[in-house]
Amino acid sequence: MFQWLFLNESGISSTELTRWRISALRIILVSGFLLEAIIAVHSSLDAMAIGAYHVVAIVAVFYAMLTIGLYFSARKPDCGAAILIATVYAAGAAIVLFVNVDEVAKLGIIFVYTTPIIARLFFGGRLAIVLMLFNFLPFFYLLRNEPFFHVQALNITLEASHTYIQALLFLFFNICIPLAVFRVLHALDASAVRYREASAALATSNEQYREFFENAGGPVILCTTTGIVLQANKMADDLLGADALSGVGKPFLGLFEPPPGNFQQAELQDLEGKQFQTRGGKRVSIQHVSRTTQGHFIVVLHDTSSLLKIKEALQRSKEREVFLSNYDMLTQLPNKEMLRRHLADTLPRLEPDRIIALVSFRLNSVRHANEKFGVTAGDRFIQHFAEVLRDTLPADAFCARLRSIVFSVILPPAKTSSEIVEQVERLRGKLPEEIAIDGRNLFVQVSTGIALARTKDISPEELIRRGEVALDSARRSSETSAMLFDEADAALIRRSIEIELGIVKALRESEFRLVYQPKVRADGRIAGLEALIRWKSPSLGSVAPGEFIPVAEGCGLIHDITRLVIDEVCAFIRKTIDQGINCPPVALNLSAVDIVRHDLIEHIDESMSRHNVPAHLLEFEITETGLIGNEALAIHHLQELEKRGNGISIDDFGMGYSSLSKLSSFPVHGIKIDKSFVARIGSCSKSELIIKAIVSMADMMSCVTIAEGVECKNQETFLKSAGCDVFQGYYYYHPLEGRQLDALLATMT
Ligand code: C2E
Ligand code: CA
Ligand code: CA
To answer: Does the CB atom of residue 473 touch ligand 1 within 6 A?
Structure first.
């Protein structure tokens, strides 16, 4: 009922005005209908009581009109409203004509004054004005203030007529019309609220749209179907420069240089993905074009110049990464990985009769440069050397920095290994002796190792490994020429590394001991002893001095060994003397590197005095090679020893190259004929001749001759006949130790 009456605003749409009117009309009709019912029923009963049946008929007609009006309010509201207005006029006329009391009849005229407002509510202003003007007629009629014309025939006066008419006016002026106006105003209020809400929502959505447009993640332009720019966001402004802002209202494609032809509606979509240049010189692509509901175009642009820059930067960083993974930063030379790849590439293409050489150079003197001038100077040295090496190499050689101070070169294939060795020696010859760094001349000392690949089956890793082995043996050898890789070398190097590590441990854990081999005179008496070192390593087993002494000489550990031997021998002499045994002179072997050591004499002195050893009981054996090289210092040391009374013999005599004249300048007391000559007695007359020559030469120098390695009677007979003084060898005694030695020495006393 109320829904039917009030027609809620929420359901109101574009036809809302009509709905408000229908609602207002219904309110007037229904309220009038209901409230008038009391008056109508009462007045009808009054009229019936006095037999005025026409009054009942008139009341019924009015009710019928109101009902019809209500009926039309649903289907044809205009008809309903027209019936209402007509009813009001009819009611006014009926009051004027049928009520014979003038004062009350006048109210009928006042009643029609409601028609303009009803007309305004339902039909608009025009009809309202027409009715206002029309209402002048009854108004003037009223102004005349003359007695009213009454239809006498129907004139009746109901007792409550006055009340009925007053109630009618009250009803209309005070209830029906105000309620209808309330309804309309309420609707207007609601509509105003809705309008405000809608406006706010619109403003928000506009703002959102604006923000979306501005921050759409790229430059965006809104243009008409004819390509005229309506709006451009900030990014589009920035991208297109001053053109975009001033471009609003201008053809969009005109913002590019050169303009890409005349704009045609259909073409805009076709431009998607195309690239243009702005007048400011930036590269722009049209990323997306879409149509709005209004038929405009949203054009999303893309700044490809910045993308291009990012791509370029990315490319550069990738190149740098590739460079770093393939090249060495310091020298800019290819690194080991690159060398490996180059070999992997070259080796499979090796022709059957060709040889590829991997030549490694180790710049040994960097260590010296680092120590003396600092690491930075060392780095510069490496850099310079790399440059020099690269300049020295043939153009088709490949040069890499294998690791810190090692450079590897792949030479172009050659036919023979000697060709390669010659080439390497030529190369080495071209390397400078010194390189100037910061005004200082740093000497270039290089070890060179060569590894050859004769077949393509060898892997790059194996060739590099062989290069390392060759380089290592070059570094360890005193030879200055290049070292060629050979499998035996590799095993030797591995063994010598084991020995080197073993010696360090042996010194720490006292694994060395001495044995003593007696030397005898022609009559069999003991002339002296020779101390010989022995090493039984827990990991390597017994290692002969012939094997570990050269290793110790190579790595400098020989000095520690010699100190130990000197100390042990002095202790042995002291112990023997202290036992009351007649101690023979004991000789110990000095290495070539020992004899030129600055603190040699100092150490011997210290040891002899600590053990209180008489000098004549301590002798030294030195090989010929030990005397060549730093001769001055060697002679000085020998003279010092002689001064103290120590005996000195030349060991392994005949194997070296010392000339007689040179020998005469050394203060020596004995010459030991090398056991290789003794071993050939009876089988090689040349050796026998040499022995005889040595003996006579020693005689001339007043030196004692000692034959070593005497193993049989024949040798002894020959040596005796040749005039040898002292004999040493298994024929007499093996090197002795412990109790055996003590027992022997005891017999001498
Ligand atoms: P060397 O000084 O010529 O020593 C003689 C070598 O001949 C010793 O070998 C000895 O055992 C061996 N020998 C002795 N009699 C005979 C024999 O009848 N026939 C044969 N075939 N050999 C005999 P060892 O002890 O193995 O020493 C080898 C080399 O090691 C020594 O040669 C010496 O140069 C060096 N050496 C030994 N001990 C020391 C040491 O304490 N210091 C230094 N610097 N070198 C040492
Ligand atoms: Ca010796
Ligand atoms: Ca010897």
So the answer is: no
